[in-house]
Amino acid sequence: MIKNQDNLNFIPKPFNIINARLPGSKDLHMLFINREGKVDQILPMDAILKRGPISGLQILDFGGDWVSLGGVDLQINGALGLAFPDLSPENADILPKISHFLWNMGIDAFLPTLVTTSIENIHRSLAAIANEKEKTESSAKIIGVHLEGPFLNPEKRGAHPEEYLLPLTLEEVKRILGDYTNLVKIITIAPELDTTGEVIPYLCSQGITVSLGHSQATEVQARKAFEQGATMVTHAFNAMPPLHHREPGLLGAALLNEGVMCGLIADGKHVCPTMINILLRASKFAGGIFLVSDALAPLGLPDGTYPWDSREIVVKDGTARLHNGTLSGTTLPLLVGAQNLVKWGICNVETAIDLVTEAPRKAIYLPGLNDNTTAKELIRWHFDEKSKELYWKRLE
Questions:
Q1: Out of 65, 294, 309, 354, which one is annotated catalytic?
Q2: Which 8-state DSSP code applies to residue 196?
Q3: Which of 45, 259, 293, 354 keeps 20 to 30 A from 316, CA to CA?
Q4: So what's the pLDDT on residue 329?
Q5: Which residues contact 330 (CB under 8 A, 6 or more apart)?
Q6: pTM of whole model > 0.85?
Q7: Which helix (H) or strand (E) holds 202?
Q8: Is 294 a catalytic site residue?
């Protein structure tokens, strides 16, 4: 169940938000919202109180609640019945509806994720996204595309169709990117497939973040990929060898590299909460982890059986599987992951918020909450001490 609350009523500008906590800080702060609806200043409450009483502006007292930007989802495969690899000129008009839906789910920005499919489908989807990329009012912004494949290890392909996997060569990479290099923000690859060592440096030179995943890479192979410029891992623990005391593998190499951040699905199905706890502690929480939804096309629809490329997925309680039981994703919005971490007692509220708001921005070098943020991007979070539940609502 999505635990959010109704939006606040419109608040006249300018105004002050007082007694608000920020992600990564337990201190109380004041945010001054100017007439243009932007955060003009963020100051500690202690510094404000030393100056004397606050007067002359409308005051919104958060009473110790947290304030943050909305979430950024770096791995989301579809919503409202549409899988992003199925995009075409005929159905691309649903993208603004998806953006609006995600905005109402607390998401400020996202990367439509294209899983392994034919080159024709990839190019058709990229063209549709490029044409619909512009942000509209009260909608989540499309900030690029995440290509999750087709350069994956067949042994760790998961739900990706094997017939569309391609060898990881510079020629094939350029063929997949085509005319859309500037649109692709992240690409997931299995680094052990690159026998020439040319691919990762090339992708980095094009401004594309390289994420390692769906891989059998050893620790040595992963370290080499990180030295070449890879800075991310796709859905930690899933579609890769487990941590082992004699072979740490890709994930072990990532956890010890401070320049690498790992995506994580916090639905409790893809990764056991105990292992999530271990992973977060080992990676210094938001210092090395960000949450992703990995949500599929049925996001926003009820449980049931749905088409997925030429196959079907069965959605039950927010988890999607192929008929053979293979995990293929979730239908839970990103912010549910933060709520889960708090409910499971894995981390405190400010850290959970950080993992869906600031950490994914850090992973792709986007600015976080600052004195140029617009008020409509702000979210208020409240922790109910009695129920131990975390709630959120947009500030509009």
A1: 294
A2: S
A3: 354
A4: 86
A5: 265, 267, 269, 270, 293, 294, 295, 296, 299, 318, 319, 320
A6: yes
A7: helix 199-205
A8: yes
